[in-house]
Amino acid sequence: MVLGILLILISVSTGKGIIVEKFFDIDIEKDEIFEKLITKIMKIAHMSALSAAIIKNNEVVWSKGFGIYDRENEKEATNETIYLVASISKTITATALLQLYEKGLFDLDDDVNKYLPFSLRNPNYPDKPITFRMLLAHQSSLAVDPPAFYVYLPGDLEVKGYPYPWLKEYLVPGGVHYKPQVWSNTMPGEEMNYANVGYALLGYLVKLISGEPFEEYCKEHIFKPLGMNDTSFRLKDLNISKIAVPYVVRYGEYYPLLHYSILDNAAGGLRTNVLDLSRFLIAHMNGGVYNGVRILREETVEEMHRIQYPSNKYGFQYGLGWQIWKIGGQTYIGHTGGLYGVATNMRFRTSDKVGIIFFTNKEIYNVREIIAFSLIERLLFWKADKLKGFNIAELKETVIANKELLAHMADDFNVMGFVNELNRLV
Known about the structure:
Layout: E1 5-12, E2 18-24, H1 31-44, E3 49-56, E4 59-70, E5 75-76, E6 83-84, H2 89-102, H3 132-136, E7 152-154, H4 166-171, H5 196-210, H6 214-226, E8 247-250, E9 253-256, E10 260-262, H7 265-268, E11 271-272, H8 274-285, E12 289-290, E13 293-294, H9 298-304, E14 317-318, E15 323-327, E16 330-339, E17 342-349, E18 354-360, H10 367-385, H11 392-402, H12 415-425
Antiparallel strand pairs: 1-2, 3-4, 3-18, 4-5, 6-11, 7-10, 8-9, 12-13, 14-15, 15-16, 16-17, 17-18
């Protein structure tokens, strides 16, 4: 029975650089050993709390909370602790919109201007329509959001005039909030740019097309049917005593943040726990059905999980609201999320429909923490598979796939720097 690394194999191949394989050998048959390792990684990465779940055969087979989710009141995390899940929210927003698509209320390749009360056009390409598909797949030519776009509001504080006319004033030349930087120089449909404001628009379109407020629509048509009782885009709908306090860590000290909302709620404002979200993930893993309740047709789910516009820009491909990764020769579908005081992960492996979910109440701040985050992901799949080890190449692929959670991580990822940092971590 071993708790650490037993074997490091480093071989040098002539003229081809360094090939590194590192095998972790841990007896995961006993939960206590697995949990000690998770706790150790959390400590090194300054994660105050973490809640996780493993899904196999359309059910949660393991779930647990670790650490303290409210340090001021010494509340221990469980599998029912609620977290702000950031960009995982996009999978919900896309599902809501695709439900309306199934009703024949629009077509994915329709110009969204048919449904908006203002004209949405990239001023560099004024004659090129922007479609629902483009917005869902981050191909609308909206640029990556400038820092000024991120507005954090205490509690459920609402902004008068949002989403309309605020979105018009932000996106249309001549608007009060308009800056040319909100648009890229590429034509709609040509390049992926991860733009949160695109999902703010999609949330607004859910409201316009359904006739219901976005948050209410999701509650009535997704959360209630699936029995997701601890899930909402609104803080006031939840038991605040069960919500993980978001923390930032500076020089080893934890600083709590206020529970906050964001302007683009549909892009990143969802709060939920791992048990609730597992129901939603199982529905998507199972062709749109959870426990006999259908939220989408099977062919719609397949379209959402299909790469829409192949791209090499990020460490992932994108479907309709879902990220798609290739790691170790396997395809994974899901979404990650990151905001102040939170980092989250939900994904499943398509070959055998094994899924994992985990949330922590601290953002990813440096390379060591992105390695820790990725190592937890691998360990959860490892536990699900009851494997005795994995090699560093697969972990490296996972880190690269998750690197967008750390904005300043270099594209030219250094293998030996990675190995040295991993050695320090474990």
